[in-house]
Amino acid sequence: MRPRIDGKEMDSPSIRAKPERTQKANRRTGRPRRGGAAEEVRHEQARRRKKLPWPVTLFLVSLVIPWIIQLGPVRASAYRLVLLATLVPTLIMWLSGKAGRIRTADFALIAYALWCGLSLAANYGVSATLQPSAILFIETAGSYLLARCYIRDADDFYNVISLLFKIVAFTFPFAVIESVTSRNIALELFGMVMPTPVDTNYDPRWGMRRVQGYYEHPILFGVATGCILAPVYLVLGYQKPVWQRSWRSMIVIITSFLSMSAGPTSAVVAQGMLLTWNRVLHKFKDRWKVMWGLVLVMYLFVEVVSNQSVPEFFMTHFSFDEVSAYYRVLIWRFGSASALSHPVFGVGFERWERPSWMPPSIDMFWLYHAIIYGLPAAFMMMLAFISLFVTVGLKKGLGDRLTEYRTAYLISMTGFFLVGWTVHFWNAVYVLFLFLLGSGAWILDAKTEGDSRVKRRGTGRATPKDHPAAVGGGHD
User: Fold this and answer.
1) pTM of the entire structure?
2) Potential cystine with 36: which of 6, 202, 305, 472 (Cβ 3.0-4.6 Å)?
3) Dist CA 326 CA 228 (whole Å)
4) How many other C-beta atoms lie within 10 A of the C-beta of residue 361?
């Protein structure tokens, strides 16, 4: 008896694969193949059956609820309350193996949070650091483990990106109104119920207000809305025509751009360039190796020819404002010196070593940890990021769908990495970054095409994947 999908025999002409020549033509035009369309229908049905776990939905929605909730001496927020409620359950799930194998990044982030608490205790004493240390652990471990425990397959990942896009699309008209009228309608509405962050009207750029949205600063708004460009294009747009991919992507690009911040805009541009590279050279197997080679050549060229270091060159050439670029160079120089002068426990939240006329902010995520908590904290944060990025990137044997999802994850993380040299992530954007970092770890536990073939040979039973023509070339 022939295997059936959706009530149709698998060799039925209605779902039979097109000839190779037609498939190649469709890849060039961006139209989904007939087999690919059948596969997408199957995945869409699976996604409708599988809803996003409610803790994840609650967490992502809470990120755009800007209420300041005062619980005694503790300044809480909606997302902190969600993370507090889910921390113990996710720790138990993680330790019991329900999040898959325990990874290097898991240990690194938990060690980071614990080291930060130890660093604060060394600088201020134990009693004075219990509250900030607890909040830091809840935000760091809580957001990361929430993704590790609940985002366990491609459908979960799709549903996360879908919800994040809906949030950005809902935000878009409010951002346009704020940019044009200089009124932050979002904060005004939320402020009718509970206190919210201060609506700070920063100096206009190009005649438009820098949109702050639900966040404390326009930079955070730009990062939070722009970080999902690659996943929106590749994940929500998988097997979709180019026009469907493009309109969603344009909403993300325009919304993020309205922050009028160089860092987030550079991250969006970088994602766009990598997406273009991937699409133009999709038939070239070694395209990413070539790209890394070009990056290395550019790095060496800047080191040899420029009178600036590579980070300084990047910061000064990707900025709307020369003054801001100049200050970021100073932060790099004096901040690095401060970190090397206090390498073990950092300087805490006291005044870090800089000229008296410099602002106190440290607008550099990857350097911030070294200055405040010491070099071990910076090392562990970077280790968590790089270990996941590299291991996910080297994962072999993924089908077409998972390969696209993996590419989207890596490009998004590249955007975070680049913007982290010119922006500090704090509050909602910090936990969003760690959540998205953990949301790609499931790829490491995904079954490869080789695993599927071995399983099918072992059972001797026909499955849809035994007939790649019926489901679009055997995509995962």
Assistant:
1) 0.84
2) 472
3) 29
4) 11
